[in-house]
Predict the 3D structure of the following.
Amino acid sequence: MSYAQTAGHRGATAAVLVVGGGGLAVATWLGGEHGLALGLVVFYALAAAAAYFWSGRDSDVGAILRVGGDERQRRLDLTATAYAGLAMAAAAVIGAMVSAARNHGDIGQYGVICVVGGVAYVLSLAVLKRRS
Amino acid sequence: MKNRVSELRTAAGLSQGELGKALGVSRQTINSIENGRYLPSLPLALAIARNFEASVEDIFIPEGD
């Protein structure tokens, strides 16, 4: 049944933080910013440790960090993700505007983020609409 | 939407955690349903009704009824 709790894995979010943060740190190191790369390693290691220990607790956030939880917790996660997406979209649009104003109309990488977000939304809507 | 989950759970001598375990949801979700902060999905509402051997309409009552 769709309402039932899914177990999830305690290390799920921690693993994402380790892999994502590790990749970012390696890229930063390769870019020559060694101090910043080491700082990122420490930051993401602490964040992964916090996520791992928090996910062991019997709480809504703990269940969401395990990428599990019941229907209400999954809905909380989905809503929070939607708000985060809106915040990122707003930041990308504002960034594109500022970039265009400063660089003779060039919206730069913010424009790429806007296009990816817009296309992903339209495609998701089309697929989800067909399924429902 | 009002509901009688808390009343029926108490009458059955169950804690929120025990009811949540029986239904496969968290204690926090049972608490949110009882306080009217969360409206369960149809499958969960049916499971709650089945658990108390009642109908969904007996447990979940629209405001104004």
